[in-house]
């Protein structure tokens, strides 16, 4: 049931991204082009998502547990550290350069273009490098 619900929610998310036009990197990049062909539609998509999420959380968190899990998995850390800032900066730079974000690129994979696949390959490579650096850092901090 969990896999089926994950598929259904992913499909709804992908359809929303496709209908809103956010699978087109030019549309996303035009949002950042204040001096040229500025397109504010990304702000409306994000604002709509924020409103739906805020309302949804108020209802969902009143339940004793999620429908398909025994408890909620809510992050407890609230500190801002170098890893958080570095990850956010990397995400923003990658999004601004490519016009793709990790969630929005998944529906774009079905367009038959090479750019979304190249972006996904770069994301996977970045994750592998980050895991390598983190494991190296942990080994250096705690030698056996």
Automatic annotation (TrEMBL):
Reading the lineage from the top rank, the first entry is Bacteria
Q: Does the keyword Transmembrane apply?
A: yes
- Keywords attached to this entry: Membrane, Transmembrane, Transmembrane helix
A Pfam family found in this protein is: DUF6691
TM segments? 42-61, 82-105, 117-133
- For this entry, the protein name equals YeeE/YedE family protein
Organism from which the protein derives: Stappia sediminis
């Amino acid at each position: 049931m969990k896999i089926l619900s994950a598929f259904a929610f992913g499909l709804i998310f992908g359809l929303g991204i496709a209908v809103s036009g956010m699978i087109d990197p030019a549309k996303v990049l035009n949002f950042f082009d204040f001096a040229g062909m500025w397109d504010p539609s990304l702000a409306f998509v994000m604002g709509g998502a924020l409103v739906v999420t805020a309302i949804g959380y108020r209802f969902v968190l009143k339940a004793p547990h999620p429908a398909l899990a025994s408890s909620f998995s809510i992050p407890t850390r609230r500190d801002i550290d170098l890893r958080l800032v570095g990850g956010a900066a990397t995400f923003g730079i990658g999004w601004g350069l490519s016009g793709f974000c990790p969630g929005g690129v998944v529906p774009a994979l079905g367009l038959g273009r090479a750019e979304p696949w190249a972006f996904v390959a770069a994301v996977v490579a970045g994750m592998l490098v980050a895991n390598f650096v983190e494991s190296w850092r942990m080994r250096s901090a705690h030698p056996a």
